[in-house]
Amino acid sequence: MQSELSPEKQREFAEIQTALAAQISLTDCRDFSDLRTAAGVDLAYWNTPDGREHAVCCIVVIDTQTHTVIEKAQADGEITVPYCPGFLAFRELPLVTEAAAKLQTKPELFIFDGNGYLHPRHTGIASHAALLLKAPAFGIAKTYYRVLDTDYTEPEQAAGSYTDIVIGGEVFGRALRTHDGVKPVFVSAGSGISLETATAIAMQLTEKESRIPLPTRLADLETHTARAALRGES
Fold first, then answer.
1. Tally of CB atoms within 10 A around 180
2. Domains in the chain, please, with CATH?
3. What Rg value do the Cα atoms of the chain yield, rounded?
4. What is the pTM of this model?
5. Between vectors from CA 24 to CA 100 and to CA 13, what angle results, nearest 5°?
6. pLDDT digits (tens, 9 = 90+) for 185-198
């Protein structure tokens, strides 16, 4: 079993995040109206019989015009950083970067199952990864990560409705309704992309089968298949 993340490690990680936050750009690094490729990123975890924690990261690259899969890549291994809210990137990024390095296609955009700017130090996994991968990215989370004890306001029930998540007078992200009447998802810029553009792309790439964009939906499905294979399950 993993121990808890020590206070010393938490301080070290927080200092890294604070330094990275100064590099984040919340403006579009390019014209995303001609976006052709986007990659969804997700991880799945399991414990081995001896109590060690493992995970597999799957990346699925799609053609944003046809919604067809262009390429898949994955990486798996032991997770050595204990879980601690606010420090997810330090657990997951080693496998994310390993999987990304295997891609023959260089995605124009990464979409993470998680947060970006919606984070106490603005460095959720989507922000941290965008800087590490040197590519624009945003996060879209299925559950709300409550930052600085701030709740969100429910958007209207119509698809495309949203409410901004404002903390200390600053917009950290937004709650977005991707289909009529479904639970909202939580969108936040990573880096190299604006919240407005991330929202528009999230809506563009969300199909009727799910409330999350196709790239992250496919990555999520791929992690379940990969985890079963790695565990020797049928």
1. 11
2. 7-22+33-230 (3.30.2170.10)
3. 17
4. 0.95
5. 75
6. 999 999 999 999 99
